[in-house]
Amino acid sequence: MQRALTGHLERSLTLRLPCQPIYANEVGMPTLLFFALFMAFGCAHDKMVSVQPSKPIEVLSLSQIGQENHHLIGHFKLQATGLKRFWGSFEFDVVAQDPHYLYLAVDSFFRQPAQIVRYNGISPPGSSKHDLQKALNLPIEASELVDIFLRRIGTDLEWAEARRESGRIQIPLPNQQNLWIELEQNGSLRKRTLTKGKDHLVYSVTYTRYPFEFELEVSYQNQIHKAILSSHDAKLNQGPIDEQLFHR
């Protein structure tokens, strides 16, 4: 009797490889259950591939980027680094105020305003874009230019559609356009790029030394044109500004 019991225990406690089969007639029921559980979790673990979920985009933090900037005032110079006949070099005064107020005066040769663009947020659709194309050769709405000067993404975008791709944040816009956002490590805006479809550049702005210097790229007549936008006296949050300045 003792010999039979000893032999049964020896067979029950025999060391086996983790995924080696075990037969029910070799061991008792408790031992069988133990090994069944071990194999179910231990052997499966060897074959599992750990998949890390993508980091969710914090919609609230995105919508608040740049919201501390309420006003920008300064005299800017735009110096083209591409074709001179497209931009050349010119200077202008700008006042940008949230939510979407803009005053922009392009200097003449005598430092007098040659062209003035005023926007109070309620101009007819497309009219401000037409004015800016005449003044700056930029295919952009005035409200978007305010966002650029205030270094913010925008307050009226469809954040629910935002997603990450290749280290950038993609925000789909109407008319098959996409806004691409790149952030600094501290969460501030480093670069914003507008594309038609996924790859065709409309413009991009890189904040190299905000608020004193931006790098600008614009697609015009199938060529990429570059410029530096710089200011020596730009000031942030020196307002509020009298809103009459923004009315025609």
How would the blueprint of this fold be written?
Elements lengths: L1 H11 L16 H19 L11 H5 L7 E10 L8 E9 L3 E7 L5 E7 L7 H10 L5 H8 L13 E3 L2 E6 L3 E7 L5 E8 L3 E10 L3 E8 L2 E9 L3 E2 L12
Antiparallel strand pairs: 1-2, 1-11, 1-12, 2-3, 3-4, 5-6, 6-7, 7-8, 8-9, 9-10, 10-11
Account of the protein in words:
Strands 1, 2, 3, 4, 5, 6, 7, 8, 9, 10, 11 and 12 form a 12-stranded antiparallel sheet that branches. The chain is built from 5 helices and 12 strands. The longest helix is centred in the first third of the chain and has 19 residues, at 29-47. With 248 residues, the chain is an alpha+beta fold. Helix content is 21%, strand content 35%. Strand 2 and strand 3 form a beta hairpin.
Q: What is the compact description of this entry?
A:
It is built from five helices and twelve strands. By secondary structure, it is an alpha+beta fold.
Shape: globular
Rounded to an integer, what's the Rg over CA atoms? Answer: 32 Å
What is the tally of helical segments? 5
Residues in β-strands, percent: 25-35%
Unreliable stretches covering 5 or more consecutive residues: 1-6, 8-20, 32-54
Instruction: Please trace the helix and strand order, writing H or E for each element.
Output: HHHEEEEHHEEEEEEEE
Structural class, by secondary structure, is: alpha+beta
Mean pLDDT: 74
What share of residues is helical?
10-25%
The strand count comes to 12
Straight-line N-to-C gap: 109 Å
- Main beta-sheet strand count, sense and barrel state: 12 strands, antiparallel
